[in-house]
Amino acid sequence: MEQPQMQQSIKHNSPLPIWALTPGEEKKARKNLKTMAYGKCGEYIKALADCAKENGIKVFPTCDPQRIKMKDCLLFYQTDPKFLDEERDKVILEKINSLEKRLKESKLNNK
């Protein structure tokens, strides 16, 4: 008889298990990633905004170089899995710290 094949798990570069996140926590990690990416790409976002202010309706053909630089920067951070894994790790560590704190408080209350 053939044995059923084991499903392979999703690979990620994090030492913590991805299944430890609820859907809400995954959403929080992705939101944190977006905030981090916008923070790191601030100079490109500002350059595009300044170009748009200067050129008004001609923004699309005139500001293409700034738009491309901004897009490339944002995609660099938002598509590389290591950055999302870092944000997931932060959320998981927050969760662990919160659970440890609650455990300590419950032990103190039970004494």
TrEMBL record:
<comment type="similarity">
    <text>Belongs to the CMC family.</text>
</comment>
<dbReference type="Pfam" id="PF08583">
    <property type="entry name" value="Cmc1"/>
</dbReference>
<keyword id="KW-0143">Chaperone</keyword>
<keyword id="KW-0496">Mitochondrion</keyword>
<dbReference type="GO" id="GO:0005758">
    <property type="term" value="C:mitochondrial intermembrane space"/>
</dbReference>
<dbReference type="InterPro" id="IPR013892">
    <property type="entry name" value="Cyt_c_biogenesis_Cmc1-like"/>
</dbReference>
<comment type="function">
    <text>Required for mitochondrial cytochrome c oxidase (COX) assembly and respiration.</text>
</comment>
<keyword id="KW-1015">Disulfide bond</keyword>
<dbReference type="GO" id="GO:0005507">
    <property type="term" value="F:copper ion binding"/>
</dbReference>
<keyword id="KW-0472">Membrane</keyword>
<protein>
    <recommendedName>
        <fullName>COX assembly mitochondrial protein</fullName>
    </recommendedName>
</protein>
<keyword id="KW-0999">Mitochondrion inner membrane</keyword>
<dbReference type="GO" id="GO:0033617">
    <property type="term" value="P:mitochondrial respiratory chain complex IV assembly"/>
</dbReference>
<dbReference type="GO" id="GO:0005743">
    <property type="term" value="C:mitochondrial inner membrane"/>
</dbReference>
